[in-house]
Design brief:
This protein is α+β, with helices and mostly antiparallel strands. It contains 12 helices and 22 strands. The strands form 5 sheets. Strands 7, 14, 15, 16, 17, 18, 19, 20 and 21 form a 9-stranded antiparallel β-sheet that branches. Strands 2-1-3-4-5 form a 5-stranded parallel β-sheet, with helices on both faces. Helix 4 links the parallel strand 3 and strand 4. It is elongated, with a radius of gyration of 34 Å.
Length: 535
């Protein structure tokens, strides 16, 4: 007897032919309540009128798609099936349990085919404050178009509809400055890292400690030394004068001309040529006592060209730092001659503590910039507000870099050193973060302005340089939504408290045999050339 093989379930069933979904004819289905029609009409118009590469975007809006006599459920169903994305225009009315239920049906249908929205077809769009959002939708990151956020939210939505590649977050502080000149996450005093995970796609701007030089001097002048200053040695080699000898010659020439207060113009001697921002082609030149005015370069070198080569760029930056040093001394600051030539501090005022009135934003506050500390009836030392201030070249642009610090002196002028000084400075500066550093930078910006309105103006030879009073900023493409604050407004409120904390700081000095430490945790490198010329 032949046994028959038992048929297995589905053994002789024909394979089911599954039709592919029709190609999308609309980019976004705008699911909304009729009471929010004005907002949705504006959004639909902005989507379809947005300029961009390739074809125009198309939005599905019921009043534009459903004609009289057509089946509303059938057309809504067709719209859901034929749209690439489904945008839920979320308002309190959208989730109203007493509504007709159309919006519930639409987002339920979208979620049914992809419960965790892994394909990203559902786009929640927050159009108004929603006290209630269903639990199944709460985990989805919404695009915010409320109030002033509309334009930014629209840009995010358009980026998704176009299929633009979305920027990914980074978790470290990277590069220096972009080719466009914007600071890009480094050269910062302020500290801010993008958190791990997926931050919100919001633009954040963080101020740093760089003031852009908006209008640098236009020309660099040069001329050879006067022939009588170049001598021949017995062995036939050429002897060039020391810079101190040149400064003295300039001083004597000014005294002979009847100048009451002789001054030294900023210049550099390279081989047998003098370089400066002072014009050198006439006998009235500030450097005519040491250069051959008849052989001065004509025309002078364009500063933009000089910045393109490393050797000339160092020369230009050195001259700019000399001019900056003179400007800071005219602002009433003292230079620390024991360290790099770019550290400056406030002196006492008539032998007493020095207080400065300034405005962080709108309010005026008082800051003590030099004060004595008395122990056992005598002044143990003085505490001074100080900063490393120098010109730097980054990303094809010139900046004034401000690095705030503290400085201790024996008597208000002689700088105090030693390991205990480093410990005190680190104790204070090590705790400072964004707002405190912005406080310092804004303060020093006011000092550089020297009581004048408008941009910072610095005399550079016979020319001038204009420096912006608004710091350069770091732009991050990710952050925390709704976490942006007006830092200047906050600074106005907290500046008195920061100043009070400084005044109440207790300094403890003690002798130690441990290894000395640096006097500032953020101390920059020495300037290209250490200058001690009197202004």
């Amino acid at each position: 007897m032949q046994l028959k093989r038992r048929a297995q379930p589905g053994m002789y069933r024909r394979p089911v032919q599954v039709e592919a979904p029709p190609p999308a004819t609309r980019d976004a289905f705008l699911s909304h309540r009729s009471v929010d029609k004005d907002t949705v009409r504006r959004l639909a118009a902005d989507i379809e009128s947005a300029a961009g590469p390739g074809r125009r975007l198309k939005a599905w809006l019921d009043e534009a798609e459903i004609r009289p006599g057509q089946s509303i459920p059938a057309e809504v169903n067709r719209g859901l099936e034929n749209s690439k994305f489904i945008a839920l225009i979320m308002t309190p009315a959208y989730f109203d349990p007493n509504s007709s239920g159309w919006t519930d049906a639409e987002w339920h249908a979208a979620l049914h085919t992809d419960p965790d929205n892994r394909r990203g077809r559902i786009i929640p769009v927050l159009a108004a404050d929603c006290p209630y959002i269903p639990m199944l939708l709460r985990h989805l990151l919404a695009i915010d178009i409320r109030g002033n956020n509309y334009n930014r939210g629209l840009d995010q939505l358009l980026s998704i509809l176009r299929g633009d590649q979305q920027p990914r977050p980074v978790a470290y502080r990277g590069q220096l400055i972009r080719s466009s000149g914007r600071v890009d996450r480094a050269t910062l005093v302020a500290e801010r890292a993008v958190p791990d995970g997926d931050p919100d796609a919001v633009v954040e701007r963080l101020s740093c400690n760089l003031l852009p030089i908006e209008r640098p001097p236009a020309y660099l002048y040069s001329a050879p030394l006067r022939a009588d200053l170049v001598t021949r040695r017995a062995d036939g080699t050429t002897r060039l004068p020391l810079k101190a000898e040149l400064r003295e010659r300039i001083r004597q020439a000014q005294l002979t001309a009847g100048v009451d207060r002789p001054w030294t113009p900023a210049f550099r001697l390279v081989s047998d040529r003098v370089y400066s921002f002072h014009e050198m082609g006439s006998d009235e030149s500030a450097l005519s006592a040491i250069v051959d005015t008849d052989r001065a370069d004509d025309p002078p070198s364009d500063l933009r060209d000089c910045l393109q080569t490393e050797e000339q760029r160092k020369l230009v930056i050195s001259l700019l730092n000399m001019s900056l040093s003179r400007h800071l001394r005219r602002c009433g600051l003292l230079a620390d001659d024991t360290k790099a030539s770019n550290r400056f501090f406030f002196p006492p005022k008539d032998g007493q503590q020095n207080q400065v009135h300034w405005r962080p934003f709108k309010k005026t506050v008082i800051r003590t910039v030099a004060k004595p500390y008395v122990e056992d009836g005598r002044t143990a030392f003085w505490l001074h507000q100080a900063a490393y201030i120098k010109v730097v070249f980054l990303g094809q642009r010139l900046f004034v870099q401000i690095t705030p610090t503290w400085l201790l002196t024996e008597d208000g002028a002689r700088v105090k050193g030693g390991p205990e000084v480093g410990r005190v400075v680190i104790q204070w500066t090590g705790r400072e973060r964004n707002l405190s550093v912005l406080y310092h930078v804004r303060f020093w910006t006011g000092v550089l302005r020297n009581g004048r309105q408008g941009p910072i103006s610095i005399w550079v030879g016979d020319q001038s340089a204009e420096v912006a009073t608004v710091p350069a900023f770091v732009e991050l493409q990710h952050g925390i939504r709704h976490d942006q604050k007006d830092l200047l407004q906050a600074l106005d409120e907290l500046a008195p408290a920061i100043a009070s904390m400084e005044d109440e700081a207790e300094v403890q000095t003690r002798t130690t045999s441990e290894e000395p430490v640096e006097t500032s945790p953020t101390e920059p490198e020495a300037a290209t050339e250490e200058e001690s010329d009197d202004p």
